[in-house]
Amino acid sequence: MDDEKLKQELFYMVRLTSKYDFKRMDVVEGILRLENERRILDSVFGRRFKTRIFDIAAEVAHDGNCVICGQPAENQVICNHCMETITESDYAQARIKPDKNKIKINLNILKHITKQNLKKVIQYILIVCLSVAFIIQLWIMKLWFTMPEINPLEKPRVSSYEQIPVADETEAKSQLALDFPEEEGYTITYGRTDTDYTGRFLIDKGACCEEVEDSLREDQRYDYYFSDDVYVFYISLNTDTAAKVGLAEINNNGAILIMGSFNDGRNPNYRYRFR
Ligand SMILES: [Zn+2]
Fold first, then answer.
1. Could you read off the pLDDT of 153-181 as tens digits, one per residue?
2. C-alpha of residue 259 to centroid of ligand 1, in Å
3. How far is the CA of 39 from the centre of ligand 1 (A)?
């Protein structure tokens, strides 16, 4: 038997002795079964060891001396001196080192776990950041919806003022200014004198000239398509939230038509009877 094989055998015995309770038959049986397959405990020490642990488990009488050196052994198998000598041998230390490597590996696993934790922390931070971003978005969205609407749609409206005849563009402008006051952001600019269909100034307030014209009967057309002299004004609306333009026509009777984007609750391209 070579030296290496014996060292392996002795170390194996020490390890088994420090690890297992040989009073348990199931343990000893397990060791002996494994031994039958592997044939490690082949030396005189090994054979003594196998006999001893079986005797212990089976409660068979034995001398209780160290199976290696023959000195009394506290554990009935291997004396403390032999246990220590073998454990501290270069051979054993070389075999135990892998265990230290295991510890290193475990440390690496720990580091790995720490990395994982770091990852988790980063994930949490990300989640928090995203949540904050989301809350900010909600806040902006809320602001957006509660913000005054830019260029809100003008509700269709008609003048609440009486129709008063006008003699010139100045009077006409002052009549328009009643409905489109400067303090509300309106600017009225005189454009020109022009003509427009008489009938347009006679339709119901709020009615659309073009729509009425589409449905005129033959006998109504004759009176409708005379023409009136009109003053044409440009009306613009400029406030913090709206910028709109349009025009108004006012005839000498003081009847007013409007069209344009400040009248966008209706069709801004059509004229509507306003006053
Ligand atoms: Zn001994």
1. 778 889 999 999 999 999 999 999 999 99
2. 117
3. 22
